[in-house]
């Protein structure tokens, strides 16, 4: 019997006594029935407890993973709950709270139902054993010898995917389990295939990465304790996940002083500020944004900070200055700080970010922020995002948790906070109908030009569409990400007509072939991924007569070398009418080439339509294969890794 069973038995025995008393009288009931039942029940409980009850292992006694061991100034989110129940509840509903978790039935979302997975000649079996989760393989490999078992002890992520970590066998060092669970499709894939990475065979192993990198942002108050002696890594954290003290700072003094009820009452006045804790909402725009930027940025630690971090963790605390301990990097930073290949994995050639999770760097280069400490009109993270929404039903909380936006921040109201005059006649500015996706400010000024977690993400550098930028850097622009059937020349003409932008010099194909098709056929991996994602984006489907997209999505599904691009393409195809349900395995496309290709093409070809000439179809609606093959032969095959 486990602890829960013992508690249930004890409660049952206790609950029986009042019934006996009311039925038979206090004295006779207890003497005749209550005491014998109580004695017998306690005897059974003692026997069962002695034979099967396992004592929970104290966190300090766990030796095969990093542990929660707060320093004296941290108190953990459990302590915050009693005085701040709403904030604690909404944080618990966010994906920040589950960024890192100890593996247990409460935290695991992966499919550990005994299923077997086979990749590159490796066979994995994933199963639950009581309260534990195990992986077994039947083939050779550095991490998993034949027939070996590995108990998974820590997880990261719970929104789109979940990774798992196992003990490296030495100290508290962790290695990454080579499969990742994709939540939306209920399937396992090799970790490296879930990201934009060059094709590779085999199952690469990530040794010690949680201890040397992930813990910086996936846990609160982390102390890596990276001792040089092998087997002595002793990573400890104040709390797993991104918890209260990540944003508000260590709270020991705050809790200690506010045990005084009179002190707590004194802060219920007009200002309500308490200098023993940091509230990002009351910081200056710059310092407030830095609370988010401590994790959502591209940076390098200053030398002294790097040495300090290896043992004791970061010195930065919310309310402090990030520049005291780290340097934020951009595409034009000193090349010795950011190697060329690393720069290309993070930035487009024009300097815009091409990877998600680094939004702070994008904010720093936004004119809405860079204007300085102007006060109300200085954009910061909290201008649109909220860590704690207003009270609402479970559905509204789940919707908020997806991107933690404030109410109405998925509309133009986000920008009209600072630009109210544009709202008086929005069409005069956007040249699109009010209420249309073309009149949503962020679709033009925050287009989906970043990649991460198998999807496109909005840029957080506020900018305006420019055909010239696309022509010189290859970065897709807002207009052609929505108007997928239009050429880059069409975009240049509209921007010149509406906003007086000079028309750039463009190639012949830019005036005759839709920009999205050029990205999909001859573009690099980042361009192809964005084109594939956009062909499943609802505003683009509504704007661009989507029938013609099917052929190009099928091409990417079967012909692209990047596993992640094939996955994105199949998901986009399922958003098209008639293709919502079909079998396809992006990890083994050849198995489905005949059946899926035939079914998809039969369904698509049966539709009567006149397709735009810019999408490379002849008047009968047949793809112009000669021109398509020529563009594919020009594909940019330079290896690209989007470093998430």
Give a written overview of the molecule.
This protein has 644 residues and is an alpha+beta fold. Helix content is 37%, strand content 12%. The chain is built from 27 helices and 18 strands. Strands 2, 3, 4, 5, 6, 7, 8, 9, 10 and 11 form a ten-stranded antiparallel β-sheet that branches. A two-stranded parallel sheet has the order 1-13. Strand 3 (113-119) and strand 4 form a beta hairpin.
Please tally the β strands and state the result.
Answer: 18
Proportion of residues in β-strands: 5-15%
User: How much is the radius of gyration in Å?
Assistant: 29 Å
| Overall form | globular
Mean pLDDT: 87
- Report on the biggest sheet: 10 strands, antiparallel
Distance between the termini: 45 Å
Structural class: alpha+beta
Helix content: 25-40%
> Which spans have pLDDT < 50 for at least 5 consecutive residues?
1-21, 26-53
Tally the helices: what do you get? 27
Record the SSE blueprint:
Blueprint: H1 3-24, H2 26-52, E1 67-68, H3 77-80, H4 85-93, E2 100-102, E3 113-119, E4 122-129, E5 132-137, E6 149-156, E7 161-167, E8 174-176, E9 179-182, E10 187-190, E11 206-207, H5 209-218, E12 219-220, E13 236-237, E14 239-240, H6 244-248, H7 252-257, H8 261-266, H9 285-293, E15 299-301, H10 303-312, E16 326-328, H11 340-346, H12 359-364, H13 367-370, H14 394-403, H15 413-416, H16 426-430, H17 441-445, E17 448-452, E18 455-458, H18 467-473, H19 478-482, H20 488-499, H21 515-522, H22 525-534, H23 538-543, H24 549-559, H25 563-573, H26 593-605, H27 625-633
């Amino acid at each position: 019997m486990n602890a829960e069973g013992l508690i249930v038995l004890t409660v049952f025995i206790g609950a029986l006594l009042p019934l006996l008393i009311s039925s038979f009288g206090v004295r006779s009931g207890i003497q005749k029935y209550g005491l014998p039942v109580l004695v017998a029940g306690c005897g059974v409980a003692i026997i069962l407890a002695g034979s099967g009850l396992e004592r929970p292992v104290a966190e300090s006694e766990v030796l095969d993973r990093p542990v929660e061991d707060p320093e004296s100034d941290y108190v953990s989110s459990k302590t915050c709950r009693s005085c701040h129940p709403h904030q604690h509840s909404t944080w618990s509903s966010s994906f920040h709270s589950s960024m890192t978790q100890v593996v247990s039935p409460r935290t695991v979302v992966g499919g550990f139902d005994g299923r077997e997975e086979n990749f590159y000649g490796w066979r994995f079996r994933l199963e639950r054993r009581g309260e534990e989760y195990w992986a077994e393989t039947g083939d050779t490999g550095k991490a998993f010898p034949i027939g070996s078992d590995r108990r998974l002890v820590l997880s990261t992520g719970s929104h789109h995917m979940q990774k798992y970590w196992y003990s490296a066998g030495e100290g508290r060092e962790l290695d990454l389990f080579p499969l990742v669970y994709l939540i939306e499709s209920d399937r396992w894939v090799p970790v490296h295939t879930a990201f934009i990475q060059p094709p590779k065979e085999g199952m690469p192993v990530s040794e010690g990465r949680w201890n040397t990198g992930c813990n910086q942002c996936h846990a609160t108050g982390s102390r890596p304790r990276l001792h040089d002696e092998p087997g002595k890594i002793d990573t400890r954290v104040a709390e797993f996940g991104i918890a209260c003290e990540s944003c508000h700072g260590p709270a020991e003094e705050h809790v200690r002083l506010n045990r005084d009820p009179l002190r707590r009452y004194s802060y219920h006045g007009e200002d309500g500020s308490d200098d023993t804790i940091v509230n990002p909402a009351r910081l200056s725009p710059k310092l407030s944004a830095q609370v988010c930027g401590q994790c959502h940025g591209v940076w390098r630690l200053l030398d002294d900070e790097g040495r300090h971090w290896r043992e004791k963790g970061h010195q930065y605390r919310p309310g402090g200055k990030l520049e005291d301990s780290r340097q934020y990097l951009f595409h034009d930073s000193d090349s010795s700080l950011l190697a060329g290949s690393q720069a290309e994995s993070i930035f487009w050639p024009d300097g815009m970010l091409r990877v998600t999770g680094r939004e702070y760097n994008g904010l720093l280069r936004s004119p809405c922020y860079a204007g300085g400490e102007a006060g109300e009109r200085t954009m910061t993270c909290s201008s649109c995002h909220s860590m704690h929404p207003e009270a609402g039903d479970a559905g509204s909380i789940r919707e908020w948790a997806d991107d933690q936006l404030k109410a109405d921040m998925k509309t133009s109201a986000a920008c009209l906070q600072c630009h109210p005059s544009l709202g008086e006649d929005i069409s005069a500015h956007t040249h699109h109908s009010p209420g249309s996706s073309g009149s949503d400010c962020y679709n033009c000024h925050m287009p989906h030009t970043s990649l991460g977690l198998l999807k496109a993400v909005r840029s957080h550098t506020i900018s305006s569409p420019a055909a010239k930028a696309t022509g010189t850097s290859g970065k897709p622009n807002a207009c052609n990400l929505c108007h997928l059937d239009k050429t880059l020349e069409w975009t240049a003409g509209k921007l010149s007509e509406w906003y007086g932008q000079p028309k750039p010099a463009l190639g012949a194909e830019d005036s005759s072939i839709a920009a999205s098709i050029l990205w999909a056929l001859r573009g690099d991996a980042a361009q192809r991924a964005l084109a594939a994602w956009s062909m499943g984006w609802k505003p683009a489907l509504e704007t661009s007569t989507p029938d013609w997209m099917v052929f190009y999505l099928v091409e990417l599904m079967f012909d692209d070398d990047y596993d992640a691009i094939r996955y994105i393409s199949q998901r986009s195809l399922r958003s098209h009418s008639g293709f919502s349900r079909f079998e396809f395995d992006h990890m083994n496309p050849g198995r489905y080439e005949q059946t899926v290709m035939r079914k998809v093409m039969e369904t698509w070809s049966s539709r009567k339509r006149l397709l735009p000439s810019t999408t490379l179809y002849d008047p009968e609606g047949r793809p112009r294969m000669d021109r398509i093959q020529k563009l594919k032969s020009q594909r940019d095959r330079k290896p690209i890794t989007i470093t998430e």
